[in-house]
Amino acid sequence: MTAPAPPSPVPADAPAGGIRAGGGLWVLLVLLSHWRRSPGQLATLVLGLVVATALWSGVEALNEQARASYDRAARAFQGAGVPALVASEGGDLDQSLFGVLRRAGWPVSPVIEGRVRIAGEPFRLVGFEPLSLPAGSGLSALGGGGADGGGEGEAFTNFVLPAGRTLIAPETMARLGAAEGDRIATTEGRALPPLLRSDQIAPGLIATDIGFAQVLLGREGKVSRFLLGPGEGAPLAEVTDVALRRVAPTGDDDMERLTASFHLNLTAFGFLAFLVGLFIVHSAIGLALEQRLAMFRTLRACGVSALGLTGALLAELMVLAAAAGLAGVAAGWLIAQALLPDVAATLRGLYGAEVSSVLALGPGWWLSGLGISLAGALAAAGAGLLRVHRLPVLESAAPRAWEAVSRRRIAMLGVAAAGLLALAGALAAWAAQLETAFAAMGCLLLGAALALPAVAGRALIVAESLSRGPVMQWFWADTRQQLPALSLALMALLLALGVNIGVGTMVGSFRETFTGWLDGRLAAEVYLRPGSEAERQRMHDWLAARPEVGAVLPSRAEETRIAGWPVELQGFTPHPTYRQNWPMMAILQDGWDRVAAGTAALVSEQLARRTGLAPGDPLTVPTPGGDWRLTVAGVYPDYGNPKGQLRVAVAELERRWPGAALASTAVRADPDAVPALLAALAEGTGMDPANMIDQAALKRESTAIFERTFTVTAALNTLTLGVAAAALLTSLMTLATQRLPQLAPLWALGLTRRRLALIEIARMLALAAMTALAAIPLGIAVAWILVAVVNVAAFGWRLPLHLFPGEWAALAALALAAAFLAALAPVLRLARTPPARLLRIFADER
Amino acid sequence: MNAERRHVLKALAACAALAPLRAAAQGFAGLGAEAGGFAPVLPSTRLVFPADHGPHPDFRIEWWYVTAVLTGTEGAEAGVQWTLFRISLAPPGEGGSGWQARQLWMAHAGLTTAESHHHHQLYARAGVGQAGVTADPLHAFIDDWQLVETAAPASGAPASALGPLRMAARGGDFAYDLALTTERGVALQGIDGYSVKSERGQASHYYSQPFFEVSGWIAPGGQRRAVTGRAWMDREWSSQPLDADQSGWDWFSLHLPGDEKLMVYRLRHDTGPAYVTGNWIAPDGSSTRLDPGAVEVDALGEAEVAGRRLPVRWRIAIPARGLEIETAPLNPQSWMATDFAYWEGPVRATGTHPARGYLEMTGY
Amino acid sequence: MLSVTSLVKSYPTPQGRLEVLRGADLDVAAGECVALTGESGSGKSTLLHLIAGLDAADDGEITIGGTPLRGLDDRGRARLRREHVGLVFQQFNLIPSLRVGANLAFQARIARRHDPQWEAMLADRLGIAALLDRYPDQISGGQQQRVAIGRALAARPPLILADEPTGNLDEATSEEVVRVIRDLVRESGAACLMVTHSTHLAGMLDRRLHLTGGHIA
Predict the structure, then answer these.
(1) Given an 8 Å threshold on Cβ–Cβ distance, is B8 in contact with A160?
(2) Which residue in B272, B274, B259, B230 sits closest to B363, CA to CA?
(3) Closest Cα to residue A87, out of A218, A210, A241, A233?
(4) What is the per-residue pLDDT for A10?
(5) CB-based contact B82:B109 (threshold 8 Å)
(6) CATH number, domain containing residue B345
(7) SS3 B226
(8) CA-to-CA distance for B257 and A628, rounded, in angstroms?
(9) Where do the ABC transporter domain residues begin and end (chain C) (predicted)?
(10) H/E element holding A46?
């Protein structure tokens, strides 16, 4: 038999490059063939990537949705984007002023504004006049290309003449489950004009021609304010006797600024979840590389260059990351979809920000999700790939001694952990910015995770030295040997548990504090919001004559700026109600008296922290009539208020700001008489019941808002915990095959498979219990950073820390259950392995 | 004018289907329909004053239209336009007051000199005091534009005579404030104020007050200049739309020598010859209709205006009266770039009857 | 085909530099199967690895088919291994996740010399034709080494380097494996250098070189 002549040696013109496309693909296929044999590992890797991407992109989706909503709201018609003229003394203006102002050359456009309830939910109704509407008000057409086809002129006629049209954002329409052309009735029983979809209307707002809105709001002939176009007419004083005040438009970026902390919070939790996911990815990739070292050497020996091999591994990683990323982004979309209603409700309740509850995400979001998956995979695999690239071809192809290498690594990790923890402490101590606070949190978590193997190793050595009997000693020693392989899964579990405990503690602390705080803050039985001075007077007169009313405590509000920061100025009636109930953090001995005398003010915690004010400090408030010099009488907590607040005696406020807006009036009354009192008040004064609220309802509303604030955090938490459990499960499943050779000698020495199985379960439970135990101090540290550092930086208030050992126990039990479940599958496999196979494994082990 | 606002107003312009201004405005709200629920224009109707100076809300469309040819103290010529349109959004019926009023007001003001042309438009809802017209005294207003009788007519003046008027308007870059006076009565156009717009019978009620003496100031580009001159007021209302094939019109109002006045219009048809008619008004206000065929109106020279070609020089001949003149614009660029865009500006006529007056051209 | 001249190689050790090769010379002609013997630690494997381009010599010259190794970078050396060298190790070094057939064809594929007919013939000659659909862990050690030999030959390299290919095999199987290598190398016209510590197996080959004191004797 003659073989063909061997090919000539390396030709002179041989390209320096490695394998050409066909060969490269082969290398990639060979690499991928590994996963078919280790589906568990593949599952871990993909799961990690999917979860990391899903949580990250889910949170990003929420943020992006909110940002898009703010942007749109800033651009959309709100009726507030341009300056306006309002009644100096508050309340409505007479419509006849419209013609008067227009004829005097003032480019005004009338707007009436109010709330209507639809299906019990309040909506802002804006009635405007399309012809005179100034530019910049955000409305450029009367229809969004909806049902009113035909000419745009027809759209105008349809809008202003009966039955009119109700402009409504698509999201709002979807929320109401209504369709274009529907005539929805308000809770008061008035039918809105037929709905017309408009993309230019902010979500949560409905708009009609002013004529219809006046009727719907029961304010015929009234105008809330006149929007001002560019230019001015004759001096106002010459035009009308009505006192008018010019108000600046609401800043466009206000909402974005106010909600920034909330979104940063979300982002941070998303990032944390992403990190936990990456832990899993890192562990899966590391294991996969480790297990394939022999294969890599063979490939190199067969003529695959180091670069070619690394390239193929990179390609493999990218293929997996892209597939997992796609799934992750899709899952992220689902997560966002599920969480959006709560996020939207929180933003609405806390900041009054309307966020569309219909998820609309652009290709940018999908791509960035995919990108983060690829980048995450790369980050998690980078070190491993580098190691493969530098892998000496000649080193013994026998699997590396896992433990020896890892011991060194554990020691290094211990050092890194100590450094990180020290950094976390330093950052937390000096954190003033939210970013620093989260950096401290990151260092703490990472440090704790990295310290886990060292700490657990120590604990196991101690356990080993304390235990008696060969089996127990073997148990601890073997557990210690298992530690490196399991450590990443355990780290993930530790992080998830720690964050869970931390966030749970924060939420619990908040709830505990908030409930007590609300009790003190809402001491009056009834709160009323008069719409105008006239109504206020009517209401006061009426209440004064009622025997069941103990005290009527009116208040006024004004906005000012202190140190460049927007501050609410609240004028309240000095009354024992406040002195006895108002929760204070610190107050001068004669503080209340000095406030009543008009020489001092109470400042909110946010304002105090921001400006460094403390009781006794001087404080200057700019007023229209010059500076008002005050002393800080005390500092009170003002949870949840994005702005600073300053409380002064209402009489003093009125004196300095004659046009100060009416705020709520607190009424002390016999609690039992409240329902009857409110009914009689509505009847007696014609006051809208929507503007009356009793203490219980107000507390209910406030609590609901705050509960929802943490819904998303809690949900992300639960997801993270689930992920950690899943990681533990897959890690164990991967290890199960490797375990058999280690267990076989024991079986040969006379331990029954049943006993071996029990030992395996006990081992997992021991490891999980140790992790859970370690998670408790970590959780407390996380909680402390949250309430004492993050909250202060993000919201300006600090919470007292309360501890909830019951919750820790529940979480520990959950962790043990997860560990039990995770250990069960491999153990069952062990128990079912026929003795013959165990024997062969034993024999094969040389 | 900003883009957003313009969009809303465009919507209104679309109502009128972007057809020639005066003509098309008659077709507003219910294109193609006959009077369609609105009051019909009948030859038997006799105009009554001062009531007919006021609005006729039962008719679909109506206007108060004043043009003035002016001369400054240094001899510079100028022209001014002040127009208020009333447009019905829906046929008359129950209700319709306040915000639900069915009337829409629209106004155009123009100021033309040899160097510049300025214009502005306004819109307003009826029913809320932003715009409106009363007959006695005449008070037409929209925002701070007005055409208002500042005193009662002289005693012994005809019933149709108006007292002294103040006419004022302003836009972004111009303003004017003029006093208009005459003791004479109005001149009825067409036959007794019944003005036929085509051979198919479309018509309007139409009268004019062409005898105003004017003084006051104009401010093109901010600088006030004292002016004097003559003004011509047109009042017209109708319900019937024009024919679909009437593509636009060319309308002249000329102050002839000897205090005679000439109004001529040429309604162009897509198919067939234009419908050309007018009225010859004697100094005593008596008005004679010029039957179709009696007037010749021919375009002489075109100019490029606002991206299109328009005939800005014309020849008018009325052989029976020995009139043969040619008109030339003060400023060929007298383009009203309003939502309904058209050409309107002062012209000077030379020939047998040297004259000054106004030309309006729509549908180009 | 293979020419080694004055090859020098030393390794740093805690006791100082260990000079493994001190000017080794050897030549292997095409179609020739040469045994390389020597004491444990005499540098046999080192020599082989240097020839395979897995490691770099301190001095001296290696040429394969006239191409000097010196001056080739990692990619060039990888290309050389891929296309001109077939390596057989003591550990069989099969890819556990690939079936026997795919393992056999692997190097030929990445060298773009995949020839199913030739591979089928090799499988036949190596007695593994019935095992092609199995995974490496489902066949015996001797069978695995036959697959590794097949893999080295499948790409038709002009040079086969075998490093104790029978080290993990029993005596009877070893003889059989060496015979197969020898026969197939002869038939394909390639050159072969086989490291072995067994004088018996060395005697089965065409020529025997002995490495001692860093020199070829």
Answers:
(1) no
(2) B274
(3) A241
(4) 37
(5) yes
(6) 2.40.370.10
(7) strand
(8) 76
(9) 2-217
(10) helix A39-75
Q: Is C186 on the interface with A (CB under 8 A)?
A: no
Smallest Cβ distance to A140: which of B7, B17, B102? Answer: B7
- Provide the pLDDT confidence category of residue A675 given band limits of 50, 70 and 90: confident
Residue type, position B363, single letter: G
Q: Could you tell me the two tokens for C104? A: 């056999």
Average pLDDT of the residues in A411-424: 86
- Do A18 and C75 make contact, defined as CB atoms within 8 angstroms? yes
Residue B6: per-residue pLDDT: 35
ipTM over 0.95 threshold: no
The whole-angstrom separation of Cα A678 and Cα A680 is 5
Between CA B264 and CA B316 the distance in angstroms is 9
Distance, in Å, from the CA atom of A493 to the CA atom of A489, rounded to the nearest integer, reads 6
> What separation in angstroms does the CA of B48 have from each of A54, B61, B150?
80, 18, 21
CA proximity to C180, closest of C135, C132, C138, C128: C128
Q: Is A151 on the interface with B (CB under 8 A)?
A: yes
Least confident window among A722-726, B351-355, C128-132: A722-726
Q: Which residue has the tokens 């639900």?
A: B100
- Asked if A105 lies within 8 A of B102 by C-beta distance, the reply is no
User: What is the bridge-based pairing of β-strands A225-228 and A526-528?
Assistant: unpaired
CA distance A311 to chain C (A): 13
Cα angle B327-B329-B330, degrees, rounded to a multiple of 5: 130
Per DSSP, the residues of A758-822 read HHHHHHHHHHHHHHHHHHHHHHHHHHHIIIIIIHHHHHS--------HHHHHHHHHHHHHHHHHH
Long-range contacts of B134-141 (CB under 8 A, 24+ apart): B134/B54, B135/B50, B135/B51, B135/B52, B135/B53, B135/B54, B135/B55, B136/B50, B136/B51, B136/B53, B136/B54, B137/B163, B138/B50, B138/B53, B138/B54, B138/B162, B138/B165, B140/B64, B140/B84, B141/A103
Render pLDDT for B151-210 as a digit per residue (tens, 0 to 9). 999 888 999 999 999 999 999 899 999 999 999 999 999 999 999 887 777 889 999 999
Give the domain extent around B303. 3-362
Among all residues of chain A, which has the CA nearest to that of B13?
Answer: A153
Q: Could you give the CA distance from residue C205 to residue A533 in angstroms, rounded to a whole number?
A: 115
Tokens (6 digits) for A611: 């400006």
Least confident of A354-363, A448-457, B143-152, C187-196: A354-363
Do C112 and A34 lie within an 8 Å CB cutoff?
no
Residues A237-259 have a mean pLDDT of: 70
Strand partners, A126: A113, A207
End-to-end C-alpha distance for chain C, whole angstroms: 20
- Here the contacts of A22-26 (C-beta below 8 Å, separation 24 or greater) are A22/C109, A22/C112, A23/C82, A23/C109, A23/C110, A23/C111, A23/C112, A24/A308, A24/A311, A24/A312, A26/C106, A26/C109, A26/C110
Neighbouring C-beta atoms of residue A622, cutoff 10 Å: 11
Joined together, the tokens standing for residue A583 give: 């929760």
The answer for C 19-48 residues in CB contact with A (under 8 A) is 30
Greater confidence (C15 vs B229) lies with B229
* Residue with token string 């080959």: C205
On whether any CB of chain B is under 8 Å from the CB of A156, the answer is: yes
> Whose CA is closest to B153, among B50, B266, B45?
B50
With an 8 Å Cβ cutoff, are A105 and B144 in contact? yes
User: What is the number of domains present in chain B?
Assistant: 1
Select from B318, B5, C12 the least CA-distant residue to A230. Answer: B5
C73 to chain A, any CB pair closer than 8 A? The answer is yes
Instruction: Compute the CA torsion angle B163, B164, B165, B166 (nearest 10 deg).
Output: -150
Distance CA A819, CA A821 (A): 5
Distance of alpha carbon A724 from its chain centroid, rounded?
20
Residue type, B135: A
